[in-house]
Write a structure and sequence with these properties.
mainly alpha, two-stranded antiparallel sheet, 21 helices
């Protein structure tokens, strides 16, 4: 095991890597149930059979991607159906229903064709090193801004939207918007109704867990993040029993541990509806494929570059060794997702929690993959991980990733502005792709304007040396793609 994953060379141990894998799993286990909920509207669209199929696809496709990441790239990154991409996919499927008149399940199967084509394109681009060239074409200033931008995004997820509370007044209600965003505790209580007590418990749990992680990390205790999350879980379960008069384990009664493979075979497994796919029109289909490609590509690039920078896995140019292999793993995972029945599988920002716990090699990814497979058989148990516990870990990892700001060159106007636009826009837009897109666009525009001004000075003999345009052909193509992505709508989005 040590030789296979080069543990000694990377300064880590089997125990550290397994703990890191478990930590990563706990911070992203929510996707196992959330993904089928989003893609089927909690089972309302496609019924229980489709929900079960997507649930199994989520676990299997994620595990396949992580197996490839572990053995091919030897990197600690975890993969799963991407948040944002799954919501967009659900919108697309719903619009296919309205356009074609197909059932939701048939439209879902037509949508899987889009994901399949996207995955194949990505695989070819990754093998041919095109995706790696795209990574290298992104300006260094933007790349350096990705890590702290993801840090702010993780803090936004942890404090802002991870712990949603429902009540008689509706919901979801969130920590920052509805609890701390209220002018007074009385207003927060009136707004959330019966959910106020649960919100207080979530807030207390989150901050106690965060303080536990910080103290343990300060004392250099191994597995500080995981231990803090476990402490949060115990506090939350005890709080439910004592203060909310709720049995946190009540759902175990009558729970089924038998995986619904028959439902998967009926609804999602290799169920590509190409005839339905053709009915949406070629222009729309091509536009959607390009849109999914852009989002997935830059989500993956941003996550890999950002988390790798935090873990010290990049060189002086901000480039990560074995980037090609990591991108291939991402592409394989997407193809596997389409074949099993889920939206685009991509590298998860929550990988940062495992890296913060000491994960440095593919053994971390392998450990997370095994837990995803086990989740198929023990889903009722994993459902007990409270979101407040995950929030504590995400906030801590986000704080650590903010340290990447120190690598940004503050003396260079042409790079500092795009870097900070990336840092600001990513959490605001709630999208890694949008953050990188705004950073790239601003870099190209700023550098082009400065080049024109300097060329005018050069023509008027005010400059002796002819200025160089610091914009490559690849970067210009990326710039155009982002303009299309932001400005061109389709009838399905």
């Amino acid at each position: 095991m040590g030789k296979l994953f080069k543990l000694k060379e990377n300064g880590t141990t089997v125990r550290t890597e397994i703990v890191a894998g478990l930590t990563t799993f706990m911070t992203m286990a929510y996707i196992i149930a959330l993904n089928p909920n989003l893609l089927t509207a909690f089972g309302a669209n496609g019924g229980t059979e489709l929900w079960n199929g997507v649930f199994l696809a989520t676990c299997i496709a994620s595990a396949i991607g992580m197996f490839v990441m572990a053995f091919l790239a030897n990197k600690p990154f975890a993969l799963a159906p991407g948040m944002g991409l799954n919501s967009f996919f659900a919108v697309v499927v719903g619009n296919i229903v309205s356009i074609t008149g197909l059932t939701y399940t048939e439209s879902f199967q037509a949508g899987l064709c889009i994901i399949l084509i996207e995955g194949i394109i990505f695989f070819i681009l990754s093998v041919l090193n095109v995706r790696e060239k795209i990574v290298q074409a992104i300006p260094l200033g933007v790349r350096l801004g990705i890590a702290p931008a993801i840090g702010l995004m993780l803090m936004n997820i942890g404090l802002g939207s991870n712990a949603g509370i429902y009540s008689d007044k509706g919901g979801p209600f969130y920590v920052m918007r509805d609890f701390f965003g209220s002018l007074t505790p009385g207003l927060a209580r009136d707004t959330m109704g019966s959910g106020y007590s649960a919100m207080v418990l979530a807030v207390v749990t989150m901050f106690i867990g965060l303080f536990v992680i910080i103290i343990l990390a300060h004392k250099k205790v191994k597995g500080a993040v995981l231990l803090g999350m476990l402490a949060s879980c115990v506090i939350y379960w005890a709080g439910e029993a004592i203060f909310l008069d709720t049995n946190p384990f009540a759902s175990l009664k009558g729970a089924s541990f038998v995986p619904p493979f028959a439902d998967m075979a009926e609804t999602t497994l290799f169920k590509f509806n190409f005839s339905g796919f053709v009915e949406i029109g070629w222009f729309t289909a091509i536009t959607l494929i390009i849109t999914f490609c852009i989002i997935d590509m830059f989500d993956t690039i941003g996550t890999l570059v950002g988390t790798a920078s935090r873990a010290g896995m990049v060189d002086e140019n901000g480039e990560m060794p074995n980037m090609k292999q990591a991108l291939i793993a991402d592409a394989v995972a997407t193809v596997a997702g389409s074949a099993t029945g889920t939206s685009t599988v991509t590298t998860f920002v929550e990988s940062g929690s495992g890296i913060a716990a000491g994960g440095k090699t593919g053994l971390t990814a392998l450990s997370t993959a095994i837990l995803f497979i086990l989740a198929i058989f023990f889903m009722p148990l994993f459902a007990f991980i409270p979101s407040a516990a995950c929030s504590a870990a995400l906030v801590y990892v986000g704080v650590l990733m903010l340290g990447g700001v120190k690598n940004v060159d503050f003396s260079n106007t042409k790079t500092i502005v795009p870097a900070f636009i990336t840092i600001v826009m990513m959490p605001f837009a709630y999208s890694i792709t949008d953050g990188i897109g705004f950073g790239v666009i601003s870099y190209v525009v700023i550098n082009f304007i400065i080049w024109i001004i300097e060329m005018i000075k050069y023509k008027s003999k005010k400059l002796e040396e002819k200025p160089k345009l610091e914009i490559s052909i690849v970067l210009l193509i990326i710039f155009v793609l982002f303009l299309v992505y932001f400005l061109v709508p389709t009838k399905l989005n």
